[in-house]
From TrEMBL:
PANTHER family: HISTIDINOL-PHOSPHATE AMINOTRANSFERASE, HISTIDINOL-PHOSPHATE AMINOTRANSFERASE-RELATED
Pathway(s) annotated for this protein in UniProt: Amino-acid biosynthesis; L-histidine biosynthesis; L-histidine from 5-phospho-alpha-D-ribose 1-diphosphate: step 7/9
Name of this chain's protein: histidinol-phosphate transaminase
EC numbers: 2.6.1.9
NCBIfam families named among the record's database cross-references: hisC
Lineage per the UniProt record: Bacteria, Pseudomonadati, Bacteroidota, Bacteroidia, Bacteroidales
Listed SUPFAM superfamilies: PLP-dependent transferases
Catalytic reaction(s) noted: L-histidinol phosphate + 2-oxoglutarate = 3-(imidazol-4-yl)-2-oxopropyl phosphate + L-glutamate
Gene3D superfamilies, per the entry: Aspartate Aminotransferase, domain 1 (3.90.1150.10), Type I PLP-dependent aspartate aminotransferase-like (Major domain) (3.40.640.10)
Molecular-function GO terms, alphabetical: histidinol-phosphate transaminase activity; pyridoxal phosphate binding
InterPro entries in alphabetical order: Aminotransferase_I/II_large, HisP_aminotrans, PyrdxlP-dep_Trfase, PyrdxlP-dep_Trfase_major, PyrdxlP-dep_Trfase_small
Amino acid sequence: MIDLQKLIRPNIREFISFDYTPKEKQERGTTHIMLDANENPYNKPYNRYPSENQTTLKEELAKLKGVKSKEIFLNNGSTEAIDMCYRIFCQPKIDNVVSIDPTCELYKRYAILNEVEYRPVRLNEDFQLKASELLKACDKQTKLIWLCSPNTPSGNILDVEEVEKVLNEFTGIVVIDEAYADFSHSRNFRERVSEFPNMIVLNTFSKAWANAAIRLGAVYAQEAIINIFNAVKAPYNISQLTQVQGLEALKHRYDIEDWNKILLLERKRMINAFSTLACCKKVYPSNANFFLAQMKDAQKVYNYLCEKSIKVKNCSNLSLCNNCLRITIGSKAENAEILGILRYYKPTI
Ligand SMILES: *Cc1c(COP(=O)(O)O)cnc(C)c1O
């Protein structure tokens, strides 16, 4: 069992016990005359602060995902949730976190910004983790373990049994970033929130939900953890515009399913086509909306594509990714264009 009270940073623990606002903040509702928050009476409907608890959006999301509203915390994109995990659990200069390597670069970025030691543990050649190696890197100041599945830039799903081992044996918090889970049909950890009291799952509207512009993400965890996020969040943290568009996205979930079907077909087509390119050595299988390709000379291909006004991600600086490019699956037309251009690529020596 985990001791949540002991895992939280002392200042946050104190703040929560002394904070004058209750954990589940009151909705203001629409009373006849609202003169309590120094809002402007003009410019309806944008003059009022938005729903503090995003009740409607959370209820719709809860129905769709098969969890309780109280097991959801909404944020301005997973990027913010990553920062919040550090702020809630890690004492600067004292605590540390353990992470798989390579993975999403945001975990390291926010470790640095929060002055928390970051301990990357190298994955094996197939980008798989060994629970024992992650656990070996932990000590009593390790508060978080970062996992990402499907992982980026590799695109693979992490071995479920190894992840379960980490969840069962680590006495701190395990964060599983499932930003790309909706592109795969495998069982995800979000559906298993009730099993693991020390698990935080991150989802985002930016990828499979095709709403990166609105900056909306969701944390799924047991109520005790969600309460802490609610207590420390900025007041009115999700804008009215975002809440409205978030609901709209949920209404259009069948469009999104259709788009995802096309993207998965395109992924198959792109991976097959890339493996036949002269400039490409190896393509890794993917469970996400991108794939990793090892090139003969990634920098040259990258520069060539830049000249043609096509942007991909050069991952050569990441562990196990020497000469690798990460290519997002675009529209059919975009995919056809990059393939056409790469077929004409001639390496200059
Ligand atoms: C895109 C991405 C994020 C950031 O998501 P936002 O909700 O847009 O902030 C976080 N983690 C991973 C693994 C991602 O791919």
